Structures are given as C-alpha cells and as structure tokens.
Amino acid sequence: MPNLLAKGRLARLSGLGSATLASLTMLAGTVLAATAEHAPDAAHGGEHAGGLPQLNPATFPTQIFWLALTFIVLYYLMAKKALPRVAEVLDARQERISRDLSKAASLKEEAEAVLAQVEKSLANARSEAQTLIGQAAADIEANNQARQAALNADIAERLKTAEANIAAAKEQALANVRAAAADIARDVAGRLAGVEVDAAQAEAAVAAVIEERRQ
C-alpha cells in the first residue's frame, strides 16, 4: 500500500512535468514562428535600438533551445534522482507510520487483555473474600453457640449441685435440730415430770411437730 501511494505521487509529478514540457515546446514553436515572420523588421529595428541582448529577437531561437535543453535536463534529474528519492522518503515514512499504528494496535490489544485479566482476578478475589468472610462468620456463630450451650450446661449443673448441697445441708440441719430438740424434750420431761422418755419417742414427737410446722 505505501509503495502504491508513492508510485501514484511520482506518476502525478511525472505527468505534470510532461504537460509542462509539452506546453513549453508548443510555446517555443509559436515563438519561433513569430520570430521568423518578424525577423527582418526586428533586426532593422535592432540596429537603431540598443538594449539587452536577451531581448533581441534574433537570438530567441538559441535562447529557446537552451531553455528547452535546460528544462529537459532538469526534468531528467527530477524524474530519475529527486522524485525517486522523495518517493523513497514518503514510502519509508508511510511504512514507519503503518508500523507504529500496528504496534499501537498490538499494545492496545495487550492492554485490554491485561485489563480483562486484572478485572477477572479482582472479581475472583472479591468472591473468595466474601466466601471466607461468610465462613468465618458461620464459624464464629457456631463457636458462640457451642460456648453458650456449654456455659448453660455448666450453670445448670452447678445450680443442680448447689440445690443438692442446700437440700443436704437443710436435711442435716433438720436432723441436728431434731436430735437437739429430742434431747431437750427428754431433759425437760425428766426434770419437770420425773418421767424418763425414750430417745426414739422423743425424736418421733419432735419430727411430728416439725412436719406439722412445714405444712
């Protein structure tokens, strides 16, 4: 594609040069014809009128010849030397631009691929983080429930043990109270009534009184 563009530019320049050469040739022919018609008058007038030599009609054919020769030489140099060099420079510039555009497109694709990979990694990381957070919350809740259940069971066991100890202490205190009351009742009966009361009878009587007071 760059070669075609450069060749197109070169062809346009060559066509322009050819058209210019053709126009110059036609102009030179017209001037030569006019010079041939008016050469005697111009030469006669030139004898009486001085001036620049290049304005002398008698030298027009020679001037036009050298002008055409110079133009042909310049055209040859332009077509064979300058214009190909310009075409090479344009071609190299176009290739460099195309290479830069291709590299930019490749870098853009790589950047888009990296961005997509980063976004995918971030999405996976967020998903894993949410999963870990949910699992940690579930573990914490399970541990809390287990600790609460263990604490409730320990409290219930301690309450049960305390109630049993209290009941045992109460029974022991009642037994001691019954024994002391029975001894006191036997002692009072012996001193006041002179009656010897059996220990078992005294304890039974005290127990009956305590049971009646409970009710």
Structural commentary:
This protein is an all-alpha fold. It folds into 2 domains: 2-108, no CATH class; 168-214, no CATH class. Helices cover 91% and strands 0% of the residues. It contains 3 helices and no strands. Helix 1 runs antiparallel to helix 2 and helix 2 packs across helix 3. It is rod-shaped and about 195 Å long.
Number of helices: 3
Based on helices, strands and strand pairing, what is the structural class? mainly alpha
Helix and strand pattern: HHH
What distance separates the N and C termini? Answer: 120 Å
Instruction: List unreliable stretches of 5+ residues.
Output: 35-50
- Rg, alpha carbons: 67 Å
Number of strands: 0
Described by strand count, sense and barrel closure, the largest sheet is:
none
**Number of domains in the coordinates?**
2
Average pLDDT, all residues: 76
> How much strand content do the residues show?
under 5%
Global morphology: rod-shaped
> What's the helical proportion of residues?
over 70%
GO molecular function: proton-transporting ATP synthase activity, rotational mechanism; proton-transporting ATPase activity, rotational mechanism
Membrane topology: Single-pass membrane protein
Subcellular location: Cell membrane; Endomembrane system
Family: Belongs to the ATPase B chain family.
Please tag this protein with its features.
mainly alpha, 215 residues, 2 domains
Brief characterization of the structure:
This protein folds into 2 domains: 2-108, no CATH class; 168-214, no CATH class.
